[in-house]
Amino acid sequence: MLDAIQIGSYISKLRKARDWTQVELADRLHVSHQAVSKWERGDSLPDITMLPQLADVFDTSVDDLMNAGDMNRYGSNMGRMVTGFSQNRREEVAEMINAAEVDVNGLIEVAPLLKASELADVAERVDPKLFDMEMIKRLAPFVETELLDKLVLQAGEQSFDWKLVSSLAPFVSRQVLDQIVEQTSFDRLDGEQLSRLAPFLSKERMDRLVEQALEGELEWKVVVRLAPFISKDMLGRLVDEVGSGKFSDRDIMQLAPFLGRENLTRLVNEKGLAFLDPDTIARLAPFIDKKTLSEWIAGLMARQ
Question: Which of 78, 33, 35 is nearest to 55 (CA)?
Fold first, then answer.
């Protein structure tokens, strides 16, 4: 993205070269001197409609300003785009991108200066094949969810990079994220990736993931990571699986914080108190009611 500090420093340099104060520059642009001060400190970028005016005041180009005087930084492909946006000619901007007269990366660079509606108006007119997942990741904070969903699904037809998908998860809809996970083979997913995605997936999708874990496609440690995000019904099913002896007592310890008192009590009652020892009781104690805890302790003492 555009480097606000570098651009601000360049604006300051151009102003000082003309021996103007910040107030004098502000008067020429009809803005407050506080606005000029924020630009020069790199606290904010000039509004996109202000860039052509700044270029005129300093007798330079918009490209020169956005490159902070170094044309090797972003090149000379953004000036026309910025001018198009500043003059509300967004259809022409999209046409320039599709015709390769300007690079689509320029659109991503100026995204922080645009309203979501302005960016969407252009992005929806651009050939979707020009966007890859890395570009979409950079656009994600600036576009509306509906447009982002569309771009992600179109790019996803090419390939998914799970590191990028994880970074997109906070911005796309749950429906789209569910669809991405649905279409992906599980040998490409690990517990860390799933735990990053879990807060953004639907409970239905999470339940299906756990079902596949129960079928042996995912390790138990992955199930434990997913436990905070699955439904009560699925937690109940896990209790049934543990109660059947499919999983170890250690597995019970790992699930205890998520099972709830009712499920945990049912599990222990089904397995019987024989498997409880002082250490197990101590680990389970924060998750059960006092009455049940007293019964467990009494049962333990009776066995001794």
Answer: 78
Whole-number pLDDT of residue 259: 78
Assign 202 to helix, strand or coil. Answer: coil
**Reported confidence tier of residue 200, pLDDT bands at 50, 70, 90:** very high
pTM: 0.71
Rank 4-13, 100-109, 233-242 by mean pLDDT and report only the highest: 4-13
In our burial notation (b when 16+ CB lie closer than 10 A, e otherwise), range 62-99 reads: bbbbbbbeeeeebeebbbbbbbbbbeeebebbbbbbee
Choose among 52, 34, 164: nearest CA to 110. 52
The token duo for 9 is 């420093």
SS3 call for 18: coil
What number of residues does the chain have? 304
Alpha-carbon distances of 300 from 163, 273, 279, 294, 296, rounded to whole Å = 49, 8, 11, 10, 6
